[in-house]
TrEMBL record:
The keyword Lipid metabolism does not apply. It comes from Acinetobacter silvestris. PANTHER family: ARGININE EXPORTER PROTEIN ARGO, LYSE FAMILY TRANSLOCATOR. GO terms for molecular function: amino acid transmembrane transporter activity. It is a multi-pass membrane protein. It is found in: Cell membrane. It comes from the Bacteria. This is Lysine transporter LysE. Keywords: Cell membrane, Membrane, Transmembrane, Transmembrane helix. The chain crosses the membrane at residues 6-30, 37-60, 72-92, 150-171, 186-204. Signal peptide: none annotated.
Length: 205
């Protein structure tokens, strides 16, 4: 029980620290609307699930985590973050009027998969997620059996999804949306800078 509380606290503290996923949710909300951001949250949770499945499978089959794979993901993550920084920079230079009805119509037609994919890529190409979950799984490897590891992983994925949806609900409130729209250009620039900052950390870490 004590180990679980430590993991729960560590996981919660990790959620509190804004990362690429957080800025992706904000920029999607501003650019495409709440429904699109909702699907991004689902994609992020799905990415976390795939990471945990890969880690658990690696430990079960190889009894170790592939370090070389982490390096490739780190490089891929840096490239993807630079790409997101470029998109945000272009969004800031060419702001658009936010039309909620238009966004909803586009969302219903063909952008669901695209938004899930963006969240999935953000999660899978974020080495912070892989290193964080790897550390936790290694920590509990000797004390938890397979069923307990699966249950803990499911719990962590659920918390990620609930937390991101809660954050989305809070920032999509009318009062906050009016503020976000008024400051959208600067938020795009800030998000672009943050994505570049995260990318530089990956490149020079």
């Amino acid at each position: 029980m004590e180990l679980f509380l430590i993991i729960a606290l560590t996981h919660f503290m990790a959620l509190l620290s804004p990362g690429p996923d957080f800025f992706l949710i904000i920029t999607t909300l501003l650019r495409k609307g709440k429904k699109s951001a909702h699907w991004v949250c689902i994609g992020i949770a799905l990415g976390n699930a795939l990471i945990l499945i890969a880690i658990l499978s690696s430990l079960f089959l190889l009894e170790k985590i592939n370090v070389d794979l982490l390096k490739y993901i780190q490089i891929g993550g840096a490239i993807y973050l630079i790409y997101l920084a470029y998109l945000c920079f272009m969004y800031a230079k060419t702001p658009i009027e936010f039309d909620i009805k238009s966004v909803q119509n586009v969302q219903q037609s063909h952008l669901v998969f695209s938004n899930i994919r963006m969240g999935l890529q953000s999660s899978l190409l974020n080495p912070k997620n892989i290193m964080f979950y790897s550390s936790l799984i290694i920590l509990i490897d000797q004390d938890f059996n397979t069923v307990q590891k699966v249950l803990l992983s499911t719990w962590m994925i659920s918390i990620v999804l609930i937390w991101n949806l809660l954050v989305l609900k809070l920032i999509s409130h009318k009062k906050w949306m009016n503020w976000l729209k008024a400051k959208s250009q600067w938020l795009y620039y800030i998000s672009s800078g943050c994505f570049l900052f995260f990318a530089m950390i990956l490149i020079f870490a």
